[in-house]
Amino acid sequence: MSDSKRRAPLLAAGALMGLLCLTIAAPASAATSAGTLAGHFGGRSWATSASSSAGTTDSQLDRSAFLPCPCQGTDGNMKSNSVNQVNSPGTMSADKTLATAKAGKTDHNTASVRMTAKVTGLNALAGGVTADYVEGVATTTATRSLLDTSTNGSGFDNLVVQGQPVPSQVPPNTRRNLAGFGYMIMRETRHTGDGRIERGVGITMIHIYITQVNVLDLPVGSEMLIAAARSSYNRLPIQAIVSGAAFAASGEGKSQFENSVGRAALVTMGCEGTDGDVRANAIETTGVPNTVESGHGRSTASGTVTDEIAAATTSSRLQDLDILGGAISADEVRAVSRSTWKLSTDRGSVNSLGSGFENLLVNGNLVPEDVAPNTRVDLPGLGYAILYERTGGANATGANLKVTMIHVHITQGNPLGLAAGSELLIAAARSNASGL
Fold this sequence. Notes:
Layout: E1 40-50, H1 56-60, E2 67-68, E3 78-88, E4 92-105, E5 110-124, E6 129-143, E7 147-150, E8 155-157, E9 159-161, E10 164-166, E11 174-178, E12 182-192, E13 198-210, E14 223-234, E15 240-252, H2 255-260, E16 267-268, E17 279-283, E18 286-288, E19 292-294, E20 297-305, E21 309-323, E22 328-342, E23 347-351, E24 356-358, E25 361-362, E26 365-366, E27 375-379, E28 383-395, E29 398-410, E30 423-435
Antiparallel strand pairs: 1-2, 1-14, 3-4, 4-5, 5-6, 6-7, 6-8, 6-9, 9-10, 11-12, 12-13, 13-14, 15-16, 15-30, 17-20, 18-19, 19-21, 20-21, 21-22, 22-23, 22-24, 22-25, 25-26, 27-28, 28-29, 29-30
């Protein structure tokens, strides 16, 4: 690895990630047809995140406790994701984070989706912003005649900004200057949709904007979001589902490990899709000593639905990789996942063309560029790894493909201090396409 490559500790919260939906538009009259209320849900919530301009802080806070709402809802059940001890050294920390999602149609005439994000024991900007807890709540309700949104339930407990207490309830979009840093918006609220076919609301309880050179060396232009929740409802029914997600690196299986290696450069597709555009997320460097160190990472996702075809493509690329104290290294690792479904024939296909390695070394041995899918290699004193892991395929119900270029399984005690049962995923991409 290049000596000039910047390294920084990555201490991000892990995230359980569901796949979101892309829909085919149907006539607006479908919203008032007989039977169960037509339409689909949208929503996502997360505890902490930072903009890509924040440098290493972006990967350190990468959407902790991220939780999406499936297009078809949760059948009225509560889904949740929680992570302990989020920490971006010197910038932000939290004792615990929690996100929840609940969406369903309670009868033939009503549908609702409620997304929440909660942060406990917040300490941001080296004590400049603290709170016992911060919670954002975004609710959207639909009937046959109305679409309504609410942020009721959002609030703070013992919020203190640069020594000054803040009331538990403040008006939406309240601005407060942050001496030596920039400013923050509290209860930042945005409404979306036309109010007839679609309506939604988003709330970010604390949105910090760095506008000046500061003692923490946070880049000017950086942003940090705390307790963010989004919810929406669209009256158009779903005829096809396309979903996808990709990330550069993730630690899973043991909470301590997940908290050390979050889903860096995470990108997902939501119910609104991408209209064929490429959605991207990038990180400049990651680094957990003796676990993951890398240079630039970039993930992408795009989805398209026409009258004939539903298609999803995701990818992730990571450069200058060095993991497990040098047990595995590579100049570049690339994962690509594509799923396609033909609506006219109800048949699908998948492929991973473009996936591969450059100068991959395992235990000091060069691995051929054309390594076969699902190749297992032993890692003495640690466990084993699956190279070019591929799962999924196409059948009568849909097409889906998961590609993880390096999937490490820690199976024993080791000098690196990694807990047995931990897993490390490098360059992962998932895609799905199906009809209904």
